[in-house]
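Entry type: protein chain
Record version: 2
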Amino acid sequence: MSIATPSVFYAALCGLLLIALSAQVVLARRRYRVGLGAGNEAGMEQAMRVQANFAEYVPLAVVLLVLAELSGLPEAAVHVAGIALLASRVMHAWGLSHSAGRSFGRFYGTAGTWLVVLGLSLWLLYATTAGSRFQG
């Protein structure tokens, strides 16, 4: 049995992005010589928040993506959602890494992530309620 589906592909890419963001935290820990927490270093806090924000949103988004695909979301829509999620998280990571304040990447990365989660959630609600009307 093959699990080579679009949602699995985007889950794998998100996993690789998490590793890259985690490596940035490790490098920041070495640079600032901080073993635990952020110490008093703004750069350390920034690296940690980039990684943590990813970890806060992406697991649920990937679960929603897989469930949406399993529930019959057309393959093209799965690709659109996967690309939008990945692009949004890259934009957010770049934006937050370069500015602790407002930035294009941070704003549109957040908005894109929220739209993906919202869209997939609405699809799953629709698929669940539409399916239940025809089952008995």
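Comment: The domain at 6-131 is CATH 1.20.120.550 (Four Helix Bundle (Hemerythrin (Met), subunit A)).
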